[in-house]
Amino acid sequence: MALLQRVAEQGRRVVRFTLDGRPVEALEGDTVMTAMLTNGERLRRTEFADTPRAGFCMMGACQDCWVRTEEGERLRACGTFIADGMRLVSGGEWTS
Amino acid sequence: MSELLPPVIVGAGPAGIRAAERLVAAGLRPVVVDEAARWGGQIYRQPPDGGFTRPKTALYGFEAGKADAVHRAMAAIRDRVDYRPRTLVWNCEAGALDLLSDGTSEILPFSHLILATGATDRVLPFPGWTLPGVFTLGGSQVALKFQGCAVGRRVAFLGTGPLLYLVAYQYLKAGVEVAGVFDTTPFAAQARATTGMLRDPATLAKGLLFVGWLRAHGVPIHNGVRPVRAEGAERVEALVWRDARGQERRTGCDAVAFGLGLRSETQLADLAGCRFRFDEADRAWLPERDGAGCSSVPGVYLAGDGSGIAGADAAELAGERAALALLEDLGRPVEAARVKELDGRLARIAAFRRSLSAAFPFPVDWAAAIADDTMICRCEGITAGAVREVARSGQAREMNRAKALTRVGMGRCQGRMCGATMAELLSRTLGTGPDGVGRLRAQPPIKPLPIATIVPSPRGGEGTDGREVA
Is Oxidoreductase set as a keyword in this record (chain A) (predicted)? Predict the structure, then answer.
């Protein structure tokens, strides 16, 4: 079940990426955060308590929305735009 | 020599844009550095390029005219400013800024600097506040405005401040179910403060309209609320809260939008060496600025919410005013009548701002009642009890020592989300006023940098920079 709900601006070009190995779709102009949270309900699990996180401030201040790519690169999901072919993971923070 | 450097403006929101406009009008070519991809700041944030079609009236409502005017002002001077979007200023020292853009860091020397760094939501913790589905009020508005998304299907709005009713109204207008508005302010306090708000009837009328609209659409509005917890296993399923009579109640929802007013982004002013003072209205340490926007450091000017919360209208005026102060310091002629007009309008907003603070007071007792096992540091999972312990045992009597011992304020957010809480916990445990425990010192880089960042040689030196990278 998606965490974020689209309520407008749905006529944009479709972008295809993978989330935890699953092929999914987002829209051009989505942040990585929007792309992941319209296809799932978390961005990552914390390294300390293994609890789910999904971001908080959406404006680059809280640093709660770091996510990993399959290659292990770390992205700030609220400030990075989704691109075709991205391979993102929402599992443990330090594993892929 | 140094007068030959172009003035630098950090931030392209209402304050930064109006400052740039005034400097361009005087024949200067300022550098405008902004972290976002498009100008406008947070409140007038523009959707990303490409494919977004909602008109400004849909994005900004009653403020569409103002948003459009600010956007147009920047578009009109675009060719006459050195505009650096998607660029983070991560340090300020020795008369230069460190910028990060596309993975590469660059040093930008300055002689005159206007800081228009803006603000983010002020928050306090409650159990469950890290669950997916709990977002700040500002963030919930960004989701809607910038992405066309709601943070949930049925959203509870919790906290205080003008954003509380504004964002709830915007969600309702966008067709989202609003589970309720849970206002921490007692009804009586709000009613009393309304008298002061008559200084600005238009703003008061808007506030009343939001409330009226929400009520007319059956949205319950509760005053004097305190959150008990957000419930859910993997995501928010309900908000449990205590009503004004102390009775515990439960409201089913899949998201909570939450905030307690705003807090200024003061890190760069701190690194620039600006003197700070404790501001009672904002309950925060702020860089000192005079009526013109001059800081305690010659050549460094402060404008907008980044040096004290006053809202977007004041930010526009303060940005222009700071630019005029800068021009005056450069020995350029400035129009005395315009200075007088801006000063008068800023003074009126300051008076109105004081009544807004009274209408939406910071819930001091909430901070006092945070349970020891409540997580206050989202970054590293540290509890309120850990902070109280270092205060009680005498190990820490101020913020920076408490940070060193507990790591609260040392995580990735660098105290942005937990600093207010730590100040409340420390000062209450130590029995000082809120101003009695100091403030967190800013540390470069003020936001985490990728380790692969290419950092140039230090100022005037050779070799690698050697500064620590978070």
Answer: yes
What's A81's domain CATH number?
A: 3.10.20.740
Determine the Cα–Cα distance for residues A40 and A23; give it in Å rounded to an integer: 12
3-state secondary structure of A6: strand
Q: Which residues contact B319 (CB under 8 A, 6 or more apart)?
A: B14, B15, B16, B17, B18, B19, B22, B114, B116, B303, B304
- Give the A window 62-81 contacts with B, CB below 8 Å: 62-64, 66, 74, 78-79, 81
Q: What is the mean pLDDT of each run of 10 residues along chain A (96 residues)?
A: 96 97 97 98 88 96 95 94 97 55
Q: What is the mean pLDDT of residues B416-440?
A: 95
Residue A75 maps to a domain: yes
Domain B123-260 is in which class? alpha beta
Backbone phi, then psi, for B102, in 5-degree steps?
50, 40
Q: Is residue A74 part of a domain?
A: yes
Answer whether B132 sits within 8 Å of A3, measured CB to CB.
yes
Closest Cα partner for B302 from B282, B287, B281, B313? B287
Residues in Cβ contact with A44 at an 8 Å cutoff, skipping those fewer than 6 apart = A52, A53, A66, A67, A68, A90, A91, A92, A93
CA–CA gap between residue B373 and residue B388 (Å, rounded): 11
Within-domain flag for A4: no
CATH architecture assigned to B370-430: Orthogonal Bundle (1.10)
Query: Is residue A3 domain-resident?
Result: no
Residue A14 contacts B, CB cutoff 8 Å: no
Length of chain A: 96
Q: Do B136 and A10 touch (CB under 8 A)?
A: no
**Residues B37-61: tens digit of each pLDDT:** 999 999 999 999 879 999 999 999 9
Q: How far is CA A13 from CA A22, A29, B56, B98, B166, in A?
A: 20, 9, 21, 36, 31
Taking contacts as CB-CB distances below 8 angstroms, the residues of chain A near B381 are: 46, 48-49
- Yes or no: say if B152 and B167 are a contact pair by the CB < 8 Å rule: no
Domain that holds residue A70: 14-89
**Would you tell me the crossing angle of helices B201-216 and B187-197 to the nearest 10 degrees?**
140
The total domain count for chain A is 1
The residues of chain B that CATH labels 3.50.50.60 are 2-120+263-334, 123-260
Note whether ipTM > 0.90 here: yes
Q: How far is B338 from chain A (nearest CA, A)?
A: 34
Task: Note whether A9 contacts B134, CB cutoff 8 Å.
Answer: no
Kindly report, residue by residue over B264-276, the tens digit of the pLDDT: 999 999 999 999 9
Q: Which of B295, B243, B244 is nearest to B273 (CA)?
A: B295
CA distance linking residue B387 with residue B412, whole number of Å: 18
The C-alpha atoms of residue B16 and residue B117 are separated, in whole angstroms, by 8
Q: Which residue has the higher pLDDT, B196 or B114?
A: B114
